[in-house]
């Protein structure tokens, strides 16, 4: 059964940076595309970045130019580098396959506030 474990969140001031990590198990890593999702209080979960098996990346307009998704197949890990953070980036961040499975991790809380 596939499992995702996210880490790296925290409290940061506007304009700050965070690096999120996600370890993936229970799946042959290189056979899937992955995505980072986020869910703010009272809102639906949204997809913010994806990475394909070939390394092609796609971003939501709201994060384009500020977030960078990457992966390391040797470590079976997916990363999200976030810079120039804004209060509206506050959310719980999750990773999953692109076209998500039902097996969501616990997520990692990102709070952007002064």
What is the terminal separation in angstroms? 40 Å
Share of helix among residues? under 10%
How many beta-strand elements? 10
Mind describing the biggest β-sheet?
A: 6 strands, mixed
Number of helices: 0
Order of strands, main sheet, comes to 2-10-9-4-5-6
Structure description:
Helices cover 0% and strands 48% of the residues. It has 114 residues and is an all-beta fold. The strands form two sheets. It has a six-stranded mixed β-sheet, with no helix packed on it. β7 (67-72) and β8 form a beta hairpin. The mean pLDDT is 96.
Give a quick precis of the structure.
This protein is an all-beta fold and 114 residues long. It is 0% helix and 48% strand. Strands 2-10-9-4-5-6 form a six-stranded mixed beta sheet, with no helix packed on it.
How are the SSEs ordered, and which strands pair?
Layout: E1 3-7, E2 10-12, E3 18-25, E4 34-39, E5 46-51, E6 57-59, E7 67-72, E8 77-82, E9 91-97, E10 108-112
Parallel strand pairs: 2-10
Antiparallel strand pairs: 1-3, 3-8, 4-5, 4-9, 5-6, 7-8, 9-10
Key terms:
globular, single chain, mainly beta, 114 residues
């Amino acid at each position: 059964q596939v499992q995702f474990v996210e880490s790296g969140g925290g409290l940061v001031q506007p304009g700050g940076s965070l690096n999120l990590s996600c370890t993936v198990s229970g799946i042959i890593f290189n056979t899937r595309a992955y995505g980072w999702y986020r869910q703010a209080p009272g809102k639906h979960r949204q997809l913010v970045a994806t990475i394909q098996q070939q390394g092609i990346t796609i971003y939501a307009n709201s994060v384009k130019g500020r977030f960078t998704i990457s992966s390391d197949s040797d470590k079976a890990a997916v990363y999200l580098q976030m810079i120039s953070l804004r209060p509206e980036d506050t959310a719980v961040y999750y990773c999953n396959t692109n076209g998500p499975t039902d097996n969501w991790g616990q997520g990692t809380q990102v709070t952007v506030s002064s």
